[in-house]
Amino acid sequence: MVERNHSQQNEITMRFKFRRGASLRFLSHLDQQSAFQRAFRRAGIPLAYSRGFHAHPKMAFAQAMPVGMTSDCEYGDVVLTQTMDPDIFIQAFNQSMPAGLMITEAWAMNGKAPSLTAAIKDAEYCITVPGAFSAPAVEEAVEAFLKQMYINIRKRNKRGKYIEKNIRPFIEKLTADIRADTLIFGLQTKFIDQVTVKPVQVIEQLNQFAVLGLGSALDWRLHRCTLNLNWTPEIDGNEYVEKM
Question: In 3D, which of 131, 146, 139, 134 has the Cα closest to residue 214?
């Protein structure tokens, strides 16, 4: 059983990069968080816990992954009660975690770690849509779609009221490629003040705009290829240096 040490004197943040495969793509964010906590405990990793009656491991993720999405580039932070070699941390976790979640890189952070959420710059996605489509028609539709200054969606605000929101400023790049009976969209979305647009919303708006007949979003495959951050790790005495 892992001892719940609440002392903050020797706490250190371990930042890690991980991937989620197809076998766990229907995992919810809360279920994924629980899976990480269980794997950390099984691996004997010295987790730091919050204070209070309902103490929980100090852990955070850069982005909540939508149900149905796979990824090669997710990031998380977990606070430890003592220093741990990043390579040992990776090995211990991966040996304790079933197939589908795997940590690929880790960095021990000296001092207070910069917020992952605030550091996200943009993200790149691959959205696969089954079916036979006309390449010229799709390319023409994408070009016309991106020429719009306003691409509005309806969404609920914090008060529960529907409002119009222009998602065009969040779309940096959109491409389309047809391979056999599959249409593959490449999408890059921008984060503005820690806010972005869901990739499914972009493709749904394109489908509505051009009437491409893309079918239901439930049949699409969504993969996050890259999560670009405003800082980069420099391994120099385990220090984490922000990108200028």
Answer: 131
Euclidean distance between CA atoms 168 and 175, whole angstroms: 15
Which domains does the chain possess? 12-117 (3.30.70.580), 120-227 (3.30.70.3190)
Residue-wise pLDDT tens digits, 173-230: 999 999 888 999 999 999 999 999 999 999 999 999 999 999 999 999 999 999 999 8
Query: Which residues make Cβ contacts (< 8 Å) with residue 104, sequence separation at least 6?
Result: 17, 18, 19, 90
Cβ atoms of 113 and 196 within 8 Å: the answer is: no
Alpha helices for 111-231 (secondary structure H)? 116-119, 135-146, 199-210
Which token pair is 23? 């076998």
220 and 127 Cβ atoms separated by less than 8 Å: yes
